[in-house]
Amino acid sequence: MACRMRCARCCSPPRHNRCRILRPKKRTTRLFGDTTHQARNDLPTDVGIQDVFRHLAVDPDRTRAIASEIEKTYNQGRKVLVLTERTEHLEAIKAALGNKVAA
């Protein structure tokens, strides 16, 4: 139940103890693992952004790194949501995972 004073539940900072108690604590989670993968940079400097995205999507080393992180997170019992705007990239990730995780 929200109080009559403005508080966290009323879209402004809490100003009294009652709403500070009701406010949920922030939960920190690690979203990404090791992100040190370096993509090959053999593209000309004058290519468009869609060409860069295509280049990233077909990079097999990058796809293996993504699949490895998905598998590691899944094996920790966590839920995994994979978003990509390229269908061929999703298929490549799925192939790299094989039967290691449930779809």
Could you describe the 3D structure shown?
By secondary structure, the chain is an all-alpha fold. It folds into two domains: about 1-25, no CATH class; about 30-95, no CATH class. The protein has four helices and no strands. Helix 3 packs across helix 4 (about 85-95). The chain is elongated and about 45 Å long. The model has no long low-confidence stretch (mean pLDDT about 75).
Strand content: under 5%
Number of domains: 2
Unreliable stretches covering 5 or more consecutive residues: none
Order of helices and strands: HHHH
Largest sheet composition: none
Distance between the termini: 39 Å
Specify the overall morphology. Answer: elongated
C-alpha-based Rg, rounded: 21 Å
Helix count, per DSSP?
Answer: 4
Secondary structure tally: strands: 0
| Average residue-wise pLDDT | 76
Tell me roughly what share of residues is in helical segments.
40-55%
Structural class: mainly alpha
Write out key terms for the chains shown.
mainly alpha; 0% strand; 2 domains
Outline the fold blueprint.
Blueprint lengths: L16 H6 L26 H9 L2 H16 L11 H11 L6
Helix pairs in contact: 3-4
What is this structure, in a nutshell?
With 103 residues, this protein is an all-alpha fold. The chain has four helices and no strands.
